[in-house]
Sequence to fold (453 residues):
Amino acid sequence: MLKKTTLGVLSLIFILSGVAFAQLDIEYEKYQLDNGLTVILYEDHSAPLVTVNIWYYVGSKNEKPGKTGFAHLFEHMMFQGSKNVGDDMHFQYIEEAGGTLNGSTSTDRTNYWEDLPNNYLELALWLESDRMGWLLPAMTQSKLDNQRNVVKNERRQNYENRPYGLAHEAIFKNLYPEGHPYHWMTIGSMEDLSNASLEDVKEFFRSYYHPANASLVVAGDFEPAEAKSLVKKYFGPIDAGPEVEPLNPGEADLSGEKRIVQEDQVQLPRLYMAFQTPAFFEPGDAAMDVLSSALTGGKNSRLYKTLVFEKRIAKDVNAAQWSRLLESQYMITATATPGHSLGELEDAIWAEIEKIQQEAITDREVEKAVNSYEASFIYQLQRVGGFGGVADRLQVFNFHQNEPGFFNKNLERYKEVTPEDVKAVANKFLKPDARVVLSVVPEGKLDLQASAE
Fold:
């Protein structure tokens, strides 16, 4: 395969084992301030734009039972003003400068970014540094109550009042034991959000939102000397903060099969099967992605073709590896068509999995999956900022691999996957006696659930 691309980051083509592929050449500089803040600079002068992207190494995994939802709550609180930034002024400053911004929270980390015309780099650095160093002096009970209500409404809208919305919460509660960092959802529980005191929330901020537990990427059209000077000016005076001990929950033992059922206000029953799988970038993680492609990646994939086209017992079907820091999950989801039960879906899905466990997938299926992943990965790199752009990828690789320039190694781990690798992970991780099976059925239709027999 010879890939042609217009990307500026692609500069070298080489041949390995008879296969030619593009070599990404993304030059960056990484250094640390005295307070421990990791700084990564990436220059791209193709457009007069700059992005500031900051990651805090805190997510819902760092919360405690009874105090869940705090990391996501701070995704909201961070936009409510700090010591030198007025209430709700963060958005206004960026938008008046012609920029965009956003943030997100996962189980493992929280991030914020601003994309701006390049002459507003100092504005973005000032805003981010002010809320890192001086958010608490501006935090009030009124702001907490306001954003608590916003988050609780978000939970009602996206989970409690949405069809199938509570499925994943039930799965994670059963996939991981109580106390495990992945036992609860990032949104947190309604009860914990209601009980969070102002001091609880402030203590969470003091523990995790500081330079030594964060990394900052400046990317785009800027002069490095000026950027370094500005970063030191705004972030240098902030105290390093307390050391954050790495989490080591140990292996979550899912011995046996757990079957659960939810009655919901839905028209069609839906089946979920969840398994524990290797952590992000661990051996087997890439092979699980390739397995997903073979099962549900397009209309000719195995499960889609069998369940949707041939048997016509499913309206949709999806399989995906949810890669995470401590451990990943593999999830297969399928919605039944009218007149069919989840037991039928489960039997058909498992029959296809057993074929792969016995005979492996084909070379062509692997090639298709790898090509698709590579195209998607490189397409995202056409953007410097935003979610999934170059700045965000530098953060991903720095966080998980301590190597921001892991781009080529990331592609290579997919290129190295073989059909036998996929067969091996299917056998090792997709076990009927180590899974969670959830049936979500219309109210009063328990007969449609997938039962053990």
Observations:
- Residues 1-20 have pLDDT under 50 and may be disordered.
- The two ends are 47 Å apart (CA to CA).
- The longest strand covers residues 256-264.
